Amino acid sequence: MHNMINGSFQFSSDDDSDNSPHDFESCVSDLEYGLSDLNNLNYSSYSGGGMHSHIQADLDRQHLLGDTSRNSVYEKVVADGIEDLEHQERYERLLYRAQVEDLNEVSGIGCLYQSGVDRLGRPVVVFCGKWFPANNINLEKALLYLIKLLDPIVKGDYVIAYFHTLTSANNYPSLHWLREVYSVLPYKYKKNLKAFYIVHPTFWTKMMTWWFTTFMAPAIKAKVHSLPGVEHLYSAITKDQLEIPAYITEYDMATNGLHYFTPVPQATCS
């Protein structure tokens, strides 16, 4: 007990001491900083009088120079904040337009829709690449329809099933448009997306996926899964929850045969 008491007093003494080694280091550091400031002063300019004003001017100049890095950081924070605000305002304008404008010409195509939920109860968004007329559609209205459909969904976790079945060059949107869409969508779209399934991938989709997730959307790279057939998708989404066009299942059977895969329900989905 005596040793514990002594140790306790010793600890308190070290903490409260006016002669802490850290205090000495601080004083030495301050002294060296002050000497450095004095060494940088231009003494030749003080011989003609007005020494105090000359010293003050030099000190002010050094302080201004010394604050440059802090000013740069502050300016960057402000610029980033303004950029985020402008980004949010732009999305709000697009969301308003999506709610009031007539988008029947896009919704009627049927290439993008919600289809049930996955095994974890998360909404499933289906995109059929073959039905997306990339070269014969108003891409601005396509973006508005995308926002109209997804905005209420992305408030929580969700998954996307993209079917690349029988797509052609006429169905491929430009990289510029994909970049524009990704930059417009707020963070909640990326954060709450839990899986992006690509069914019937080709060499083109694999290259595009690699490029897109490497240089434009690294945050979703681990969420992208390429599946060679529809039945692989049933591990994450039950068959009764997945509504897809007949051409996809017909192609799948012709390519892979019948019952080529036995789905194992997943406990979790990445």
UniProtKB/TrEMBL annotation:
Pfam families given for it?
Answer: CRAL_TRIO_2
User: Domain of life of the organism in this record?
Assistant: Eukaryota
Q: Which InterPro entries match?
A: CRAL-TRIO_dom, CRAL-TRIO_dom_sf
Q: Boundaries of each CRAL-TRIO domain copy?
A: 99-256
Q: Where is this region: Disordered?
A: 1-23
Q: What is this protein called?
A: Protein GDAP2 homolog isoform X2
